[in-house]
Amino acid sequence: MPTGTKSISPSVKTAYMREYRARNREILRAYEREYRKKNPKIACSRGMRTRAKLRKQILNAYGNACACCGETTVQFLSLDHIHGDGAAHRREFGYKQLGSGGGEIYREVAKLGFPKDRFQLLCMSCNHSHGRYGYCPHKGRPTEPLVGRKKWNRTAKQNVITAYGGKCVCCDETALEFLSIDHINGQRRADETRHKGTYFYLWLKQQGYPKDIYQLLCMNCNFAEGHGGCPHKCPHKCPQQFTCTELAA
Ligand SMILES: [Zn+2]
Ligand SMILES: [Zn+2]
Ligand SMILES: [Zn+2]
Ligand SMILES: [Zn+2]
């Protein structure tokens, strides 16, 4: 590009760049391949855009709403394996963790023609409740009383929820099945990591339920805060009416 670009009109500049790219296509591609190899983390942003596009297709194909509660906020929606074979499916692609391997699974679902008998959309709260408890309170709770270990777990969680105000600090959700303890500054305390599940709840009690480090969030708000990429974190707090993190996966 000639020097003094400031005085050149934008359309001339665009035309020049287009012509430049066409002229040097092969060189630029080779450079990009090299760059991607050297900087896998940075280079994945393009992959993320492709994935976001694919995610949009998936959301459209599956009705843009949670199959359980009708939630339509895109940041809360996740693709659910109806038959509970999500973990096995992720392993097929070499992924272990929940939420990983999304891109590959999206591609596969698109290739299969968006089968409705295998996949559905669920919001993170309904998804968590189905996975963790085997039901969702939106459809009613089991009537038989909890006994033994299950009762012990439930009581400990109920106590923590009561101590932390009984509802999601973002959206006021109160259902126990949807609520989780969130680390306000995103960091785990070193002495906390030894305490898992119900032991974590009992440990919190021992610590006197510290409010400066932990808060209650529902799974939807918790997920959005962790993955939104929006400065307002949860779409509930976003003045742009849920649009500014629309492409977040
Ligand atoms: Zn839902
Ligand atoms: Zn539900
Ligand atoms: Zn919430
Ligand atoms: Zn929220």
Number of strands: 4
Strands of the biggest beta sheet: in what spatial order? 1-2
What is the fold-level CATH name, i.e. the topology of the domain at 137-226? Answer: His-Me finger endonuclease fold
Ligands in the model, by name, code or SMILES, are: zinc ion
> Considering DSSP H and I runs of 4 or more, what fraction of the residues is helical?
40-55%
- Low-confidence stretches are 245-249
| SSE arrangement, N to C | HHHEHHEHHEHEH
Percentage of β-strand residues: 5-15%
Q: Based on the structure given, which CATH architecture of the domain at 137-226 is correct?
A: 3-Layer(aba) Sandwich
**What would the average pLDDT be, to the nearest integer?**
83
Q: Supply the helix-strand structural class.
A: mainly alpha
CA-based shape: globular
> How would you characterize the largest beta sheet?
2 strands, antiparallel
Q: Give the class-level CATH name of the domain at 137-226.
A: Alpha Beta
Radius of gyration computed on alpha carbons: 23 Å
> How many H/I helical runs?
9
How far do the termini sit from each other?
37 Å
Explain how this protein is built:
Helices cover 45% and strands 8% of the residues. With 249 residues, the chain is mainly alpha-helical. Among the domains are: 44 residues, no CATH class; 90 residues, His-Me finger endonuclease fold, CATH 3.40.1800. The strands form 2 sheets. The chain has a two-stranded antiparallel ribbon with strand order 1-2. It has a two-stranded antiparallel sheet with strand order 3-4. The longest helix has 22 residues. It is globular. The relative contact order is 0.11. The C terminus is likely disordered. One zinc ion (ZN) binds next to β2 and α6.
